[in-house]
Amino acid sequence: MDDAQPLTPARRTVIRAGAAAAAALAVCPYAAGQATAATAAAPPGTPGRAAPAAADSADLPLRSDRTTQGDILAGSRKDHACLLLLHFRDAARARTWLGRLVPELSTTEEMARFNAAFSAARLKAGGADPAGLSAQWTGLSLTHAGLRLLAGREPFPALPAGSTAEAFAQGPAERAEELGDTGDSAPGSWLFGAEEPEHAVHAVLSLSADDPAKLAAAVARHTKALGPARGEVVFRQDAGKLTGALKGHEHFGFSDGISQPGVRGYHAPDPADGSTVQGKPGTRLVPPGEFLVGQEKVGRRPAGLPAWATGGSFQVVRRLAQDVPGWWAQARERLADLKKSGAAPPEATATWVAARLVGRWPGGTPIAGCPLAEQPAPLGTDPDATLKYAADPEGWHTPLFAHIRKGNPRDGLVIAPGRPPLAAADLDGRRIIRRGIPYGPAYDFDRPARDQQAPRGLVFVGYQADLVQQFEFLTRRWINDVDFPPARNPRVGADPVLGPQSPVTFETESATGSRATTLGFGRFVRTEGALYAFTPSLPTLRALAEGKLDRSVEVHRGTVLRAGDVLDAGSVRLTLKADGDLVLLDQAGSLLWSAGTEGTGNEAFFSADGELTVRSAAGANLWSSGTAGHPGARLLVRPAGDVVVLDGDRALWHAGGGHVG
């Protein structure tokens, strides 16, 4: 391949450098040889590369969940999609519209069952899509303005500073500067997400299908239904997977959606270790509460969110425009710089450079194990099976600035030079689930650029239970931060794929240690719109259709409260004080109730059978609500001014509100 254009993803590139190249190929986890077009064009994580589907069982309860929307955990995985961003002018009519829509929404159980059948059929067919198997999915998310409209009130009882509730209420336009959306990515030029209140987006209706005709019919039907509801489409975003050799790839030509987190209770664990996904040894299993509110979180931390959020997930929607010829021209320019400095072999191409910017070759192979060759994983295997960074602290094999390493450092995050890397488990709380899909036509390097001015890019959709600690942390502290990984001299630089314009440090091994070459990178991905929405459970949507919204802060079963944790319901706050006492305080900080459990190291725990206890550092029970034996019980901190353990509508224990239990 020459440097005139990027590698076609279905092909294989080998940079030969004598014995060194042979050695590198020897350690590549995949057999040498030409990959088939079907294998190279279908990215891992799509049905063609799926691991054998695990049967539904009591060990995987989330696979059979009919109350949560399916795109969060299962993923729609369709070739064609359309997002309708909606505004309503009448709350009562919008509620009627919502009530009629809820039965059409696709659940986790539906999507999981279909995806398993589709994956099995595609694997059997050697990577070809099964002709007789198709589906059309429907999903709904609501913005802060949409929740407020439907509920007729503020959806959060309080907006603590620095919380996800605050971030959600403000939205990405108000937080654009700290997210790096400045310059030509600033909200002033956005196509959606920065509207005036009278045109604010209230809902995101997501429609997807295998058959474009079925999708078109669904879009037309739902658009027509907006009339009686006094609703309108603020913005319509059509999208679809690229075709031909680029199927499963984004516009720069790289396989997309490969590295998704595994979810406990949804993905089957590998029986050999229990910490990774069966059939995908490179994929860690993450507690489901990092993506679905109400499930167990890393460290059993409290979600601190209202009861209406249980069973749902915060959704980030971003339209990211891609300048394809500009990005590849930059790769060629940096190739010349690297060759001049001696940091790249003479045989290296623009694709060799681009692979280091991404951390993978176009077909999905990580450069960590195959530095000189594109060698896609065989159909049905995990391309990340051996992907680790712990033995590469300097970034000699996978640069520290590489896109996939910036966004997921795995086991290779060194927080200070000379220190051992953090354990991969320490980063579980930073993962997000990505559901991106391209929009616009693929760029054809054989045609004049002046004839290809059509918009193109990626519709990024991400799910997480905490906007601040997941999406925003990744964006601010990792992807955009030129000093991440921290404390290196010279600094690493920002992510050259998604980050702002920044110099990056390309490190290579030398006789005296590490040699640094500084490279300048411009910005070729531009934000053209952004929204924060919430994808509620079906029970919450049914309640909203009746104008109801339970704003009580819920403490989910299995949650641990530690010193300093505060659950803020506006009028009252439940907190474990630094001295170990569990207390209920009013807005002014006056004591309404105390467990009387002063003692260093104490923690409070709400058990699976409905008991709230305060335990000493040694594990001894110091206080109990006396409500054990009620596995369906709920612990709520209510804006009315109390905290209560409920079994259905019956109060098992109650404190505050003029009563102490």
Topology of this structure?
Layout: H1 19-27, H2 37-41, H3 70-73, E1 80-88, H4 91-101, H5 108-124, E2 136-142, H6 144-151, H7 164-174, E3 203-209, H8 212-225, E4 231-240, E5 262-263, E6 276-277, E7 280-286, E8 313-322, H9 324-341, H10 350-358, H11 403-407, E9 433-434, E10 437-439, E11 457-464, H12 468-479, E12 502-510, E13 513-521, E14 525-535, H13 538-545, E15 553-555, E16 560-561, E17 566-568, E18 572-576, E19 582-586, E20 591-594, E21 603-606, E22 612-615, E23 621-624, E24 634-638, E25 642-647, E26 650-656, E27 659-660
Parallel strand pairs: 5-7
Antiparallel strand pairs: 1-3, 1-4, 2-3, 6-7, 8-11, 8-14, 9-11, 10-11, 12-13, 15-24, 16-21, 17-18, 18-19, 19-20, 21-22, 22-23, 24-25, 25-26, 26-27
Brief overview:
The chain is an alpha+beta fold. Helices cover 20% and strands 23% of the residues. The termini are far apart.
What would you say this structure looks like, in words?
This protein has 661 residues and is an alpha+beta fold. It has a domain at 553-660: Bulb-type lectin domain (Agglutinin, subunit A, Orthogonal Prism). Helices cover 20% and strands 23% of the residues. The protein contains 13 helices and 27 strands. It has helices at residues 19-27, 37-41, 70-73, 91-101, 108-124, 144-151, 164-174, 212-225, 324-341, 350-358, 403-407, 468-479, 538-545; strands at 80-88, 136-142, 203-209, 231-240, 262-263, 276-277, 280-286, 313-322, 433-434, 437-439, 457-464, 502-510, 513-521, 525-535, 553-555, 560-561, 566-568, 572-576, 582-586, 591-594, 603-606, 612-615, 621-624, 634-638, 642-647, 650-656, 659-660. Strand 19 and strand 20 (591-594) form a beta hairpin. The longest helix is centred in the middle third of the chain and has 18 residues, at 324-341. The model is unreliable at 7-26 and 31-55 (pLDDT under 50).
